[in-house]
Amino acid sequence: MGLEKCADTMVGDAMRRGISGGEKKRLTTGEMIIGPSKAFFLDEISTGLDSSTTFQIISCLQQLAEVLQYTVLVSLLQLAPETYELFDDVILMAEGKIVYHGPRNSILSFFESCGFKCPRRKGAADFLQEVLSKKDQEQFWSLGHEKYNFVTVDQFYQRFREYHVGQNLSMELLKPYEISKVNNSALSFSIYSLSKCDLLKACFAREHLLMKRNAFIYITKAVQVGLVATMTGTVFLRTHMLIDRTHANSFLSSQFYSLLFLLVNGFPEMVMTLNRLPIFYKQRDCLFYPAWAFAIPAFVLKIPVSLVESIAWTSISYYLIGYTPEASRFFRQLLVLFLHHSTALSMFRCVASFCQTIPIASIGGILLFLIILVCGGFIIPRTLFPNWLKWIFWVSPMSYGEISLAGNEFLTQRWQKVMVSGVTLGNRVLMDRGLDFSSLFYWISVGALAVFIAVFNIGFAVGLTMRRSSGTSQSLISHDKLTAMQGKDQVNSKEMVRESPMLPKTTLNTPTMTGKILPFTPLAVSFRDVNYYIDTPMAMREQGYTESKLQLLHNITGAFQPGVLSVLMGVTGAGKTTLLDVLAGRKTGGVIEGAIRIGGYPKVQETFARISGYCEQTDVHSPQITVWESVVYSSRLRLPMEIDSKTRNDFVKEVLETIELDDVRDSLVGLPGANGLSTEQRKRLTIAVELVSNPCIIFLDEPTSGLDARAAAIVMRAVKNIAGTGRTVACTIHQPSIEIFEAFDQLMLMKRGGELIYAGPLGNNSCQVIQYFQAIPGVPKIKDDYNPSTWMLEVTSKSMEEQLGINFAAIYRESSTYKDNDEMVKQLSVPSPGTRDLHFKAQFPQKFMDQFKACLLKQFLSHWRTPSYNLVRIVFTALSCLMFGALYWQKGNINNINNQQGLFTTLGCIYCTTLYAGIQNCQSVMPFVGVERTVMYRERFAGMYSPWAYSFAQLAMEIPFVLVQLLIFMLVAYPMIGFAWAITKVLWFSYSMFCTLLYFVYLGMMIVSLTPNMQVATILASACYTVLNLMSGFIMPGPQVPEWWIWLYRITPMSWTLNLLFTTQFVYGDNKNIMVFGEIKSISEFAKDYFGFHHALVPKAAVMMAVFPVLFGLAFAFSISKLNFQRR
């Protein structure tokens, strides 16, 4: 597979550069070939590979079929003639019908019998795909004495059935299989290749490896646990904790917070599991291993993680807080916290296995978390649950944590002081909270937590087993569009020919589409002695590589000229994409050396982005936008403001027609491999988005990868047309057909290691390239009608260098071709007389407000079409409002508050409804912003808009949906809880709730903008939830916060939220007296003394509530503007 060089390289993803696209494709193929399988079905395995590598892989498959009698079925795109000839049989399909199925050497004869003949220098595979196209078929008509009429797929299908190959096939299929030929090797007597023990070993080894690779995440979590434990211990410091009824609430609060923190600490496990599910589904469906073999290591290897984090938490916080100083009590608390943490990890893994996607899992995880928390016995004491809901207390893992920890502390000797009522102090505290159980319940709780762990892990395995992959790739079009397409197919052949936008004899070398020529300035790109270095990977250092830097490009000198179509070629891993990234300014790391000039002037990235387009190898687009909207969006932001909307739309239409995307213009783009456009359509959209910006310089990185021969010809015809208008066009390309290869004017050929071995013209029929390499002693001559690009890669391979004992790079540097190239670079590096350096009046093509409007429209469409984000969070809001309304039925009515416990419960209601609705907003917005951020990086590199315009549009788009959430809360939860309907109280509550929901959304957006990926974002978010919980004023009231932490309390948004909500609801205009710890006090007096809530703070709190959304929003915008976590 040629993967030995990158064997120790990370695969990578859209955010982290890893192996090349071709290497990923070979990795997928290799993953399937290794094993005992006797039948292989391989889909487009050559995408992203050079023709030489494809030939080697297919040769390997041919040997497996012939020598080992394997059954191999392969679908390929852009098949080179020499690779095509390796196959024995061919299945040709079109419109869901088999046009031909039989021996390869008979297929051309079949089409000749139909009147179509393959031209001399045309690859058979290319001919077979184009002859079925109504736009290309006529050029192959060979019966000149007869009038050509378009032959439909149905007609070909009928003729094949009458052809002798088709008749033989039908006869073979009618014959029953002979029992005597049955071979046991066709049967499998076990589902999996390995024994159960070996399957477990393999899965354990991989899980351990992945945990090592994610060591940063686990170390970060452990450090976070230590820091939060220290903060918690110093907040509830033992010197402030007395053994009395008042401070007993603080002990209970600290225990509740310990359970809460370790529960929240499980959220990152959900995200990490979700990120691994696509790979799991692929391997599970290929019967690599069963779901239980994946689930068991995921649980067992997380036990040490739970143990370490539980030990860290208990060791730091236990004696700082001042729990009973007995070793047995310490270890009993450690055991409970360890089991609770394991329960949390297991629960979130289970949620991930059933929800499958990050948006749905975030909502599902938050909802389950909220139910467990509210029903745990602290926020609402067990005795205050409605009678019809008392059962729910016993199905919450949090309840058993509360029972065991409370009993572990309050049943000790120091809490056995007898009160006036004859009940001990410890029992009185437990009775107030509904936790008055015997010491035996500690062990019952431990057993219950163990059962929860088992249930969640069994659920995890069941979810992995039962659930299917979340989606399949397909483009969606309207019924009207489908009807129009079907109607078009039913017109007669003459009309079809007339309607074709291309002339029948069109070739790549004869561009016919003139198009709308928008004004531009032709500019050349020249570069001299370009070198690129990266830090040497650790794996290479371990293997003995001593240099601190690894050089990927070696003194590359060349130029791309206006009106000249240049191609950059080389074997996979030669550095083609790296060179384009360097020239385009897309590299985010490493060291670049050398001179790059645009039109003879030194390149300035800001202006270069305005006049250039770059089609990346990975197709990154907003998933919820249609094809038309994506292209219009690009044109609206990248074309000069002087161009009117009609001209712009006409230009967009022509681009879509040129790239042949007009039939799917109304289709949603979707997510790669999940839904939306196919790989081919997505690639063409990437090109269209760049072409519509009317660049004078355009770089295309493998624009034909993933396309069949006809689609590749369409794309390259469009690219050729663009170069014909005087633009500078450079492409990297793999396995081009002869026709595509010879459409280029200039060639830059690189060998593995990043060295240039040829830079110059191709010549007619590639004559100059052929002459250059054939002049080197020992290089084999090219065969007649052989693809020059394939021959060129074969004769310059590393094995050929070793065989001949030469260095093609050294030979090139001594050649006259090198001198001609060097002279051309010198000429193009000097500005032409009368020219001046690029300069624009503004940094961006459009004004800031126009950028904002365009981004806002796109964000609106994305939000509206993402029900997994907005609809789900609105449904969650409605469900949580109903839940809170049921649990806190009329508990917010001041007439129902008669003692401190009623007041605590009411404050707990406000605390829950605001904090966890906010956390849900924060958690659900993060994956949405994460997906859009990847698209934003591409658009920002292209200079489409100011990051501030993009950020403000994304911030503004959240406001209407937050208002919908607020409306639901005010109509459902507000009256059910029993809050007052006085106009001032309603307005204050609405204002406070709106600001709270909004700053939580902006907090989530800010966290994503500050972190490189969702795993780290989730960890940082859980740390923020920790502070928001601890310093909210509910778990530890403000007046009781130690002076060294009071600053954190005052800058915590939730403390101001509770202050404003509670004060405006219960202190303004009300002065009811209640029983508080054995004495009568007014609510306002108790709120001021115990919680620090006072009506004098209302104006300040109102201002602070407006400050936090603004602060988080500006931090998000600043981070989007300044930070880039892509690694290229």
Automatic annotation (TrEMBL):
Keyword Zinc-finger recorded: no
Annotated transmembrane regions: 215-236, 256-274, 286-305, 360-380, 440-464, 871-889, 948-974, 986-1008, 1014-1035, 1047-1068, 1101-1120
Every ABC transporter domain range: 525-777
Source superkingdom: Eukaryota
Keywords: ATP-binding, Membrane, Nucleotide-binding, Repeat, Transmembrane, Transmembrane helix, Transport
One Gene Ontology molecular-function label: ABC-type transporter activity
UniProt cross-references to CDD domains, sorted A to Z: ABCG_PDR_domain2
Subcellular location: Membrane
PROSITE patterns: ABC_TRANSPORTER_2
Family of this protein: Belongs to the ABC transporter superfamily. ABCG family. PDR (TC 3.A.1.205) subfamily.
Protein name from the UniProt record: ABC transporter domain-containing protein
Annotated organism of origin: Setaria viridis (Green bristlegrass)
